Amino acid sequence: MFRTALRNVLAHKARLLMTVLAVMLGVAFVSGTLVFTDSLSQAYQNGSAKGYSHVDVAVRPVHQQSKGDRLGKETELTRALLDDSARVPGAASAIGVVQGFTAIADKNGKLISENFPSRGGNYWGGKDPRYPLKSGTAPRGEDQVLIDSETARRAGYKVGDTIRISVDGPVLTPTVTGIFTTDDGHVAAGGSLALFDTATAQKLFDKPGTYDEIAVKAKAGVSQAELKAQLDRALPRDRVETVTGKRLAEQEARTIEASMSGMKRGLLVFAGISLFVGTFIIANTFTMLVAQRTRELALLRAVGASRRQITRSVLIEAFVVGAVAAVTGLIAGIGIAEVLKSLVKALGAVIPEGPVVIAPGTVLSALAVGVLVTMLAAWLPGRRAARIPPVAAMSSVHAKATTKSLVLRNTVGALFSAAGATAILAATTMDTNTAQTVMALGAVLLITGVFVLTPLLSRPLIAAAAPALRAFGVAGKLARQNAVRNPRRTAATAAALMIGLTLITGMTVTALSLQRGIDKMASSALRADYVVFMANGNFLSPEVEKKLRTVEDVTATSPLRNSPSRIEGQTEYLTGVDGAAFGKLTNLKVKDGSFTIGGTRVVVDEKTAKWYGWKAGSRFTVTYEDGKKQKLTVAGLYEGNEMIRGIMLDNATLSPHQSDPTDMQVLVKTADGPSDATKDRLVKALGSNPGIKIQDKKGLSQEIGQMFSLMLNMLYGLLAMAVIVAVLGVINTLAMSVFERAQEIGMLRAIGLDRRGIKRMVRLESLVISLFGGVLGVGLGVFFGWAAGELLSTKLETYELILPWERLAVFLLLAATVGVLAALWPARRAARMNMLQAIKAE
Amino acid sequence: MTTSSIAGRTTTVAACARDLSKIYGEGETRVVALDRVSVDFRKAEFTAIMGPSGSGKSTLMHCVAGLDTFSSGSVRIGDTELGSLKDKQLTRLRRDKIGFIFQAFNLLPTLTALENITLPMDIAGRRPDQEWLKSVIDMVGLADRLNHRPSQLSGGQQQRVAVARALASRPEIIFGDEPTGNLDSRAGAEVLGFLRNSVRDLGQTVVMVTHDPVAASYADRVVFLADGRIVDEVYDPTADAVLDRMRRLPGGTSRPLESDGAGRAG
Predict the structure, then answer these.
(1) A553 touches chain B (CB under 8 A)
(2) Hey, which residues does A136 pair with through a beta bridge?
(3) Is the four-CA dihedral A370, A371, A372, A374 of positive or negative sign?
(4) Which residue from B minimizes the CA distance to A474?
(5) How close is the nearest chain A Cα to the Cα of B63, in Å?
(6) Residue B104: which of A474, A837, A842 has the nearest Cβ?
(7) With an 8 Å Cβ cutoff, is A460 touching chain B?
(8) A572, A646 in Cβ contact below 8 A?
(9) 3-state secondary structure of A640
(10) Does A753 touch chain B (CB under 8 A)?
(11) Which of A95, A413, A691, B155 has a CB 3.0–4.6 Å from the CB of A215, allowing a cystine?
(12) Whether B8 contacts B56, CB under 8 Å
């Protein structure tokens, strides 16, 4: 049986090539993803292991829980704890680590490594073992800084240069006294690192006299575990924890693994989609191969092959095809991994160098996926082959594959679709948490249902295209009829395209609607012309607002200040604003009472008020972060959004209780509205600070838009895979249809349809099938987009459903293009067919 | 561009071949399928082409009907010389001037009987002459089957659709390639009857390739081919006369009536 199967594989090379290609693409994507992520995490892990070579045991603060009116706080790692750590017998040295945010400007004043962490730290003493100096000397005082060699290279800085940096607002202009090398993972990933002497770092990062971590190095011959035990005995266990360097490296490795696994999972989902689409093609191919071989298979049955043997022979054929596809896919996947790497690099990421990792698991899963998917897809056709009666060998004509009634199929499909649609509709009215699950379930049911129903849907939908096709005369009419001739095949072909387009459309609709919603929220609630904030989301020094207030034309400013507090036994973050100016800077809808902020009068957003059961006029007691209590009155309720929400009170009331007031953002309103000149003045007023962003509403919209279009483009790129596989499917189906209808095509040629007419007929059939899939996909996608929007709108009140007609038209055009392209080769083949042989085929 | 030798016949000859040769392959594999065949098919005449397997009868028909190319000589349909025509012109010629009836019915399964009948005119973008169409349909007795699909018709009925299709566009000449080959004798007789009636009553020209002496007996004239040459002609044949003549053909003696379905390609 194996020999027969093998011969069959070789006998239908061209046809199976498509199948192999479809499986191969999927497998390549899977193995490419695995190889890429494995190589990357291996490289990162090598880096992180090196990065922890200077730590044998790290001492870290413990976070105390909040209790009653008291806010939890972190233990402060003081000098005393550092000295205690250094004094344990096994310790060779102890370093106090201080970390924070430090933006470094390049020579043009722009922030270096914008999309990656810009960090600052301390250089310990005269010679810090963590950061070997490449050139220069250790920094001393506020005017001296060290920068990492990679950043120095990128910005072109040398020892002796004066650079502009910013920690929390004001610009500093220290001199570079040295350049160091480091194994720090963040730097390896493209971030920058600036080092100050310890006292300066503590001052800049607002940790006077304390450290973020104490890194203890063991004496020679003392193991990490031993040192840890000694430290545990010497230090207060309730205030600090100790972790060995080995554990730290492991934890870091796990963190990297986890952050990789998100990307890995994402990529694998898309690989899965293209494989899923591929199964339709495989199933189609095998169905047709079996149909073509009806007589041959019947003959085998007649000479004594059992049903099981027939099924097995088809499955062996599938196995061979799957194995070939899997092996080629694996090889292609390694290539894809390299392409991905250079692609990510081209996008600006710095990836640590490392060997290509081809894990045994990757090889196994590539082979398993390729073979299993193919065999699974060939299983039904194989069973059908076994049901061919031996007598079919005797009949002179092709025993027509008995078209089983579609009744059962349609019933099942209708039930699935109805259940799916109902679930989705129900989910739109539900509470968000359960709704997501219900909606996801409904989406799966609906897609499955529609897929099962595609044969039924093909007739009316394709019939609807009849008027358009009539313009093409006989070719159009024949194309339409050919398209509905084998509804199952048409359905499977169109479904492959449908799935890709459903996802593309659904994501586009959701993303664009979400973008509009966020945009509207950002702009409609704001009256301010500019929002000033720290890049990388750090806090601004209150100095920034003071400076902005003095700029000419600026009519109103208010900082947004954050402070934790305890209210009714809950931790609540208070927002401190300039009570007098805030009303001029925002446009929040007042729902109850009045929007007055000042003294003990505060405003609260509706949701928070509802949680506490407050109305305008309610009074409550707050415990500030310094432990003092005060009674506040709710002056009014407002409609909150993602940017502005919670309890807002006047800074004059809040700030006295804060140990170190810092601002999240500053809102600025100017007399003449946003303009380049105004922005210029603001930038200058802040000393052209690299770390501070001054954004007007348009900039905000643009940034939001850019973020969304980047995301969408990535999704389009990934889904292109599924579309390519779908194209292969259409080519496959058409090629087989042309082959099957050779006799008819020959007859049409004989009675006077010219080559162009034949080509047109095949092309139009392809177009009709593709557009059918396209219309279904876009339709389903819009529905999903709408449903997802209904869910989102409960969280984002400004959400507004956007139907991007132009894009939807482009998607349909894409489907049409797929159809035309896929028909090129089959149409040519049909037109070139030898008509005499075709007529006499039987 | 009529030459004197056939000038007098241009009004009566629907199609003709002069010194028509068709050679496959080269050197040792060279096969002469047609060897300088000259033949006229007169208007309103029913001609049957007979011959044993490999005699070249199908090839002759294919070349004259513009379905196949030939190596040398000339073929004419009406006033049109086929040798100089490109594929596109040949296609148009077949569409407008020639009707076909094939052995394996060759109907489009997706079209109804009526749509199959009008297919050549649909391809040409012409409106069928309703009166003529009706008379053709009445003649073949399909009036109550027009909306059936081929799969709902018997073999005989399907071939009647094919006959109607060939007649409906009033071609200058109809070619039949074993039109009764797949039919039982009663259905075959019906189809042959229609073809003969169309010649007698409507003045249609019909050329038919067959291996069946009974089918040939419906014709006005039988042309016998052997080894790529015309070896004989019989007018107003009877089945017995044809059978008798077949037996004496070279290559025909040993297997005179064997179905040559497998060998027709040559």
Answers:
(1) no
(2) A178
(3) positive
(4) B123
(5) 11
(6) A842
(7) no
(8) yes
(9) coil
(10) yes
(11) A95
(12) no
In this predicted structure, what is the pLDDT of residue A295?
72
Q: Which amino acid is at A48?
A: S
Cβ–Cβ below 8 Å for B91 and A755:
yes
Angle between helices A542-549 and A676-685 (to 10 degrees): 130
Closest CA to A70 of A632, A653, A660, A625: A625
A485, A750, A754 member nearest B88 (Cβ): A754
Neighbours of B244 (CB within 10 A): 14
User: Quick check: A463 contacting B, CB < 8 Å?
Assistant: no
Sign for the pseudo-dihedral over CA of A498, A503, A508, A514:
positive
C-alpha to C-alpha distances, A71 to A566, A570, A611, A625, A663, nearest whole angstrom: 7, 9, 20, 7, 20
Of the candidates B87, B92, B102, the beta carbon closest to that of A747 is on B102
**Are the Cβ atoms of A751 and B100 closer than 8 angstroms?**
yes
For the segment B156-184, what is each residue's pLDDT rounded down to a tens digit? Answer: 889 889 999 998 888 999 999 888 888 88
Tokens of B81: 């010389």
Residue A431 makes CB contacts below 8 A (sequence gap 6+) with none
CB contact under 8 A, A839 and B95: no
CA A185 to chain centre: 22
Contacts of B100 in chain A (CB under 8 A): 747, 750-751
Q: Is the pLDDT of residue A132 over 80?
A: yes
Cα–Cα distances in angstroms (integers) from residue A64 to residues A238, A620, A623, in the given order: 9, 26, 17
Q: What is the largest CA-CA distance in chain B?
A: 56
Place of tokens 């208070």: A574
Which residue type, as a one-letter code, is found at position A181? T
- Out of A485, A748, A835, the one facing B67 most closely (by C-beta) is A835
The pTM (predicted TM-score) of the whole model is 0.73
Q: How far apart are the first and last CA of chain B?
A: 33
The residue of chain B nearest to residue A741, with distances taken between CA atoms, is: B108
3-state SS, one letter per residue, for chain B: CCCHHHHCCCCCEEEEEEEEEEEECCHHHCEEEEEEEEEEEECCCEEEEECCCCCCHHHHHHHHCCCCCCCEEEEEECCEECCCCCHHHHHHHHHHHEEEECCCCCCCCCCCHHHHHHHHHHHHCCCCCHHHHHHHHHHHCCHHHCCCCHHHCCHHHHHHHHHHHHHHCCCCEEEEECCCCCCCHHHHHHHHHHHHHHHHHHCCCEEEECCCHHHHCCCCEEEEEECCEEEEEEECCCHHHHHHHHHCCCCCCCCCCCCCHHHCCC
CB contact under 8 A, B123 and A755: no
What is the residue extent of each domain of chain B? Answer: 4-255
Chain A residue with the nearest C-alpha to that of B63:
A836
Closest CA of chain A from B78, distance in Å: 17
Place of tokens 């031996």: A390
Amino acid sitting at position B25: G
Tell me if residue A287 falls in helix, strand or coil: helix
Architecture of domain B4-255: 3-Layer(aba) Sandwich (3.40)
Interface touch B106/A747, C-beta < 8 Å: yes
- Nearest residue to A279 via CA among A325, A311, A334, A330: A325
pLDDT tens readout for residues A670-720: 888 888 888 888 888 887 777 788 888 888 788 778 878 888 887 887 788
pLDDT tens digits for B16-38? 999 999 998 888 888 888 999 99
Close Cβ partners of A501 (under 8 Å, ≥ 6 residues apart): A723, A773, A774, A776, A777, A778, A781, A811, A814, A815
Contact A478 B104 (CB under 8 A): no
Contacts of A111 (CB under 8 A, 6+ apart): A103, A104, A105, A118, A535, A690, A691
Q: Dig out the tokens for A790 from the structure.
A: 């209904």
Instruction: Please list, residue by residue across A558-592, b when 16 or more beta carbons sit within 10 angstroms of its beta carbon and e when fewer do.
Output: bbbbbbbbbbeeeebebbbbbbebbbbbbebebbb
Q: How confident is the model at residue A348 (pLDDT cuts 50, 70, 90)?
A: low
